[in-house]
Structures are given as structure tokens and as C-alpha cells.
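Human: I'm a chemist; would you kindly supply sequence and C-alpha cells for a protein?

Assistant:
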Amino acid sequence: MAKKDSVNPDIFGAALLDFYHGRHTEDITVISSLTEDDEIPIPYLFRDFEEMPEIEQEALKLAKGKILDVGACAGSHSLYLQKQGKDVTALDVSGGAIEVCQLRGIEKTIQADVFELTEASYDTLLLLMNGTGIFKTLKNTPNALKQLGSLLSENGQILVDSSDIAFMYEEEDGSYWRDTSRDYYGEVTFKIRYKKKTSQAFDWLYLDFETLKAEAEKSGFSCTKVLDGPHHEYLARLVKAD
């Protein structure tokens, strides 16, 4: 069952479990510091390979060796990789999400925060559905990259997607406004709500590719763009620099 926490409930876990058990009556509401409220359709989190955007499909094709699916959610990426005969572990901080992964037949799961893992050696770290979000802020990005690097094998890779959200700040006259309380325009604060329960506010980071590349290189990685998507999103590959 999803972990009960009156202070910060397991929103995703509760919603995923409801959908899996046929109790889907509403979607997750996303409350943003940047835009109007939006929704995450729960059925989409259970999508198969054919329903995934090209960026996710390409990342799954490039995933190799011992794979860690970071923020696995309902496990759709892990499930596909497992069916391809690949060695994949689904990781999520949500107890409900991990329970759903297990119910769907994913053999290797870990309920944990990736930034608290130690002594692991993965050939591929998979960070999809705006994977840079877990870096939280631009200032925290070097620490996040350092931790991810510590989990990689010698020739390991990080496959991560993100979006350049500069377009969201564009005015009708072509100028751009900026939130001066933020260090970087891709820093957003969210809350999520499901069935009258609301999470605590949390930081989320959207990184444009050039900023990700600069931060990666400062942290000892080489960073290449693999693919651009149709809506300002992209897939990048990071490997430890020689």
C-alpha cells in the first residue's frame, strides 16, 4: 500500500495503485509557481512503448548493461526494458509506485531516493520525463551530478531528458519576463494534489541543453545532445570525460 504520511502523502503512489486496481476516478492535479493548474493523466503513466514520445523510445534503445530507471513511477520504461531481456532496476522514492512496479511484474525494484544510494555501479542511469527535475535547482546541480556519477560504472552513461522553458516567459511583444527571486528561469516550485490530499511544495528544475552541457562539463562529464523533441524538449547523454 502507499505509505501514509499526513505531512507529505504519497500522492503518486496512491494514484498509481488506484489505477492499477481499477479505482481510477480522477487524475493528479499539478499546482505550479509558473502557470495555471494542470493535470497528469494517470493512464498515460501506464503507457506502452508505442505510446511513448520519440525521446523516451530512443533513450530505451540506448540503455545498456546494468540499468537503473530513476523515478520509475508506474514502471513503464523498466517493464519494456525487462521484456527486452535487459538487466533493469526500477527505483522510486514512492512506496506506492514501487508496489505497482512489482505488481506489474518488474523483478528488480528499490524504494529509495537516488541521492541516498551508495556503492552501486550501473552502466546506464535513465532519467526520463524531465529527468533534470530531480536536481531541484541550478545551484544544486553539481552535487546532483556528482552523486549520479558515483553510481556509474567506468564506462557508464546517463540518459536524461529535459526542456527549455524560456518560451513560457515570452510576452506578446516578443520580450521576456524573469522571476528575479530565482537563480535560473528553469527553476519551478510544484505541489501535487489527488483526492483532496496535497503534497508539500517541492522544487523542480528544467534545464536548457547549453546550461546542462556547461554544468556537466564542470562536473567532469562530456555531454552530447541525442535528439530534439517537437516541444522544446531534448534527450542528452552524459559520460565521464577522459
